[in-house]
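Entry for the shared binder. Reason: the reviewer on the internal report wants the predicted structure included alongside the sequence.
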Amino acid sequence: MAVRKRKPAANGHHAPHHATVTTTNNANDSSNHTPKKKNVTSAKKNDTARNPSATTTQERPSLSRSSSMAKFLHSNLFVDHYADVKGSKIHVGKGTRKRVILILGILIGVVLASVLMRQTKDTDYIETIAQYFQDFELGSMLPSGMIPDEFLGNVSAMFKPDILTEEEFYPGRELKEEHDYSPYYPVTMIPGIVSTGLESWSTTHNCSRKYFRKRMWGTTTMFKAVLLDKECWISNMRLDSETGLDPEGIRLRAAQGLDAADYLVPGYWVWGRIIQNLAAIGYDNNNMQLASYDWRLAFVNLETRDSYFSKLKTSLEVSLKAHGKKNVMVSHSMGSLLVLYFFKWVESEQGGNGGPNWVNDHVHSFVNIAGPMLGVPKTLAAVLSGEVRDTAQLGVISAYVLEKFFSRRERADLFRSWGGLSSMMPKGGNKVWGNLEGAPDDGLHDEEETMAKIKEVHDEAANRTDYGDTESPTFGAMLAFAQGSGMKHHTMDESMELLASLAGDDYNNMLKNNYTVGVATTKEEIRELEKHQSSWANPLQVSLPIAPKMKLYCLYGVGKSTERSYTYNRLSDLTSKIIEQLPANVSDETSAVPNIFIDTSAHDEKLGISYGVHQGDGDGTVPLLSTGYMCVDGWKKDLYNPSKSPVITREYSHRLSASPVDIRGGKRTADHVDILGNYEVTKDLLAIVANRDGEEGLPEVIFSKIREYSAKIDLGLE
């Protein structure tokens, strides 16, 4: 029986200026997404733009080669920068044929190298490269008194963008000059996952000693370690599977200060633009701080090992005493879940023991930027099989090289050791994410005939394991298994059960002891769950603090294709052959090779399916349901917001710049990370911290269908 497919997710729309906008719902602007054809002239302009000598300071691209690699690593670890490119035709002239031959030669070299690697140990080629570097005596070429590491550090600094250009301080400088913006509330910034640099403090572990006080995550040192010293890098980055803390002899700690998360590597800003714009209206390190943390750790272990929440509580108390004003807490991505956890920790007798009024007395506003409040499917896929959309979309050769260098087993094992990552496991189960009969954000929900057809197909195939299609008719099949896999489609609840059966005891114990993913439906349930720290990062099982004066802003992007569900397949007779090709030096403590994988043969752009990844609306990393539901619906309910703290939602439509200079998307991008450089987001944030948002707060701005989707979610509240 044929299955009617769901429609592609709707695109986003333009975001107006906050001072003049009125609430809008489901606005249409198809012009934003009309692909533009390239021609030879534009290609030449692009070449010119890449030449620094041919551009002004403002036009010069800010990304170096190292930052391009950072973008790949950063996106693979839960920060996505995928963009759709359609229908572009570039005419190849004589000037480009040499490039084609060069690229072809490189590809042939990669293939030959990959074949030769089968006949040698997996570490031989790395040792060979390392030997070349050892034979190259850089020290003999430098002036006396200058050591090679200092020289390389100075060279890499040349690629860092000039932060003194006017563009880096806009729109803050404009608001300062034209509207007299100035600091009012002190600011505390909480970064997200993989944003904070991690420094090595190991002195006894042999491989780590040479990296003492150097960043194993962030800066060019990370690339050196990953490429030339992979096993040492993994041993430093992996946490103990039983304790969730440092392995014996290894100490990796979060960098401190504003530069802990301003740039991940030279040229790749994260919080840099926000810090520069705050400085433009008068802020400095006396009235703004960045509360960095080791994002690998489960939240409870941040306090156990680093006293993180105790230090954060003290800093906010000192700030109130010094400035006489409450703080604005600004969080991004996973940092928003960390703030929710902190609110419960600081009140609880088990934590900071600040009492029920502490948050109301110390926090003026909580600005949640791109927070995955209900988790991300990307986390499930990463922990389940060591894959995400970025790895699934690699070409055949690239995928093979990646598997040889950093296998799925190694990736899954590393991800499972990071307790912080699992804080973003999807929450709410089937009640939020749907079932095989449909999901709240299915594109076909409005068509009764189509939904009836889906139900008919579901009823017929409920007990089958041999499905005729690789695509699922609904997002509610979080893991849709391909024909011949012998596996049925899995809902969110069933996917969690599958993960538990494959991940091993250590991971299951970690997840059970640190996080919950369910729903509380009564006040009695919430009162009981709030006694357990494992519930504190789940907004569906704990309520907001008693803080009627605290404003809660939800600022997030919409209109960008985002991972929502997957088509998977299962290994069969090939399993033993694949295991034989995996690195032999992986620790015996690692989990078994994942026997399921994203099926990249499932691909249909018209249906929003990209190499096994089913895509919906969101910011490129976090689906709309996760960023928006609690903001427009959940926190409007007394059960989850008992003191009726005002909750204000402002969406930003994803609009890429047409300029080749804007490698990160330009000032209107709403990408999950690049939104930190979005002009409208920056203007809104500066209005809040400068006390220019009005007594009632900024007006709500909603472009997406989040209200429609939220109305279809039935949590079963009493």
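Summary line for the report: The longest helix spans residues 94-117.
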